[in-house]
Amino acid sequence: MADLSPPARLLAGAEQLVWSTYMVAREFPFTILPLILISFVSLSVFAFLVVLHIIAPKPRAPFPSEKTYITTTPDGITSRPLPCWFDRWDAERKLSEAAASSKDAFDVPDTGSVEPAEVEVSVVIPAYNEEKRILPALEEAIDYLDNRFGRPTSEDKKKRVGSPPTTPHHRQVFRKTRQDNTTGGEAAGYEIIIVNDGSRDKTVDVALDFSRKHNLHDILRVVNLEKNRGKGGAVTHGFRHVRGQYVVFADADGASKFSDLGRLVEGCEDVVDASNRGVAIGSRGHLVGSEQVVQRSALRNFLMKSFHFVLMILTPPATSRIRDTQCGFKLFSRAALPHIVPYMHMEGWIFDIEMLMLAESAPPTPVIASDGSVIGMVPGIRVAEVPIDWHEVEGTKMNIIKDSIGMALGMVILRGSWMFGVYRRRIT
Questions:
Q1: Is the domain of 121 the same as that of 173?
Q2: What is its EC number (predicted)?
Q3: What is the pTM assigned to this prediction?
Q4: Residue 313 contacts by C-beta under 8 Å, 6 or more apart in sequence?
């Protein structure tokens, strides 16, 4: 066998293993073989669960400094405590679980209770070494947000250009007829939260200089993470501290056209339910076959199609039908946040998919007719996929081969963790 090539030696070894297994099996009575098989399968499943518990990501708790933000003032720079709807929600949730019996502890429903909004829109921008790319994105965002929503310090919101999306009758069917406590009727303006994910360049300085130049005092807020968490970890951290009626995260490279935010708001209004829960995601699915995609390398297009195939296999029905899960431009209504953010685990590239899976698996809510009667139940939180303008931006931090393999493995871990109870819709 020493003279054989490596593939031949591997094949010969496999044949020898199969033959040895067959000879051993002949020595046992036929009735014992099923027991051996069952034992082998049971041990394999047990080993898989143990490994899954070990390798499944478990986010760290935030450091005290990560619950503060930096912003500019007319006199310089200041640091202030971050508002945090999540901490209050978490405390109320744990009290509810403590009040329940141990038998019913797993069935404590999501209350969906969240503090009223203080601004109309919160924009969360995860940033890691983005000093060279973040300025154009901020410029575009400010131009649109000022015109569409105005600033919270404005005396009269009528000064803004444009108008909010209308809500035709077919949307009203899925909305509460009374004022929802998450919308906070008086919410006005916007905020931008830049989550600095352990950058080693001058991302923070560039952002604060921009804030000072445009008088975005206490509107643009910078949160510094002491240790890099990944894009998903940065977005989740920012989402815990938002004050907006609508919450959107956008990539720092400005690849998505920010003025398409209006489309996302309208898309969210199209699917919002009786509890005012809704999600709208930017989609590049309509660009398949366009010049932007065709000009990509054959390897990148192959990996993209392979990833979508894995998605169809490993994700639940509604999520598997989404054409573009990875676009970095997604909007959530405030009422949807407590059904998604507290249960996030993934901090890498596939965090988007976990968000969509959590939306799909959220508790059902009643459908309210225009006369106020309940006409049915809607399972989960509905997601609108909205076509947006998008362009490739140089300087991506993604390693196509390495990160594609990592995303595929991450999908297996994510699906397995939720399927086998490693992750649960319960605070631990």
A1: yes
A2: 2.4.1.117
A3: 0.81
A4: 320
Q: What is the pLDDT of residue 1?
A: 53
Domain count, the chain: 2
| Token pair for 232 | 């998903």
- 86: closest CA among 239, 235, 230, 245? 239
The span from the CA of 345 to the CA of 375, in Å, is 35
Question: Which H or E run includes 150?
Answer: none
Which range of residues forms the domain containing residue 235?
A: 64-419
Q: 51 and 170, same structural domain?
A: no
Number of helical H runs and strand E runs in the chain: 13, 11
Any domain includes 327: yes
Co-location of 30 and 117 in the same domain: no
Query: How distant, in Å, are the alpha carbons of 73, 134, 141, 224, 428 from that of 213?
Result: 11, 15, 15, 21, 44
pLDDT digits 0-9 by tens, 320-379: 999 889 899 999 999 999 999 999 999 988 999 999 999 999 999 887 777 878 888 888
Same domain, 50 and 126: no
Are residue 17 and residue 145 in the same domain, yes or no?
Answer: no
Range 84-88, long-range pairs (CB < 8 A, 24+ positions): 84/240, 84/241, 85/114, 85/115, 85/240, 85/241, 85/242, 85/243, 85/337, 86/240, 86/241, 86/341, 86/342, 87/240, 88/115
Q: Which residues of the chain have pLDDT under 50?
A: 105-109, 154, 156-184, 294, 428
Residue 246 domain-assigned (yes or no): yes
Given its phi and psi angles, is residue 127 left (phi above 0), alpha (psi -120 to 50 degrees) or beta? beta
Classify residue 341: in a domain, yes or no.
yes
State the pLDDT at residue 381.
Answer: 96
Determine, yes or no, domain membership for 1.
no
Asked if residues 267 and 280 have their Cβ atoms less than 8 Å apart, the reply is yes
The per-residue DSSP string of 161-209 comes to SS-PPP--HHHHTTS-SSPPTTT-TT--SEEEEEEE-S-SSSHHHHHHH
pLDDT of the residue at 297: 59
pLDDT of residue 261: 97
Check whether residue 167 and residue 37 sit in a common domain: no
Are 398 and 294 contacting, i.e. CB atoms less than 8 angstroms apart? no
CB 355 within 8 A of CB 237: no
First to last CA, the chain: 55
pLDDT at 185: 53
- Domain check: are 98 and 132 in the same one? yes
Q: Which of 38, 55, 72 is the last residue of a domain?
A: 55
Q: Are residues 297 and 189 in the same domain?
A: yes
3-state secondary structure of 127: strand
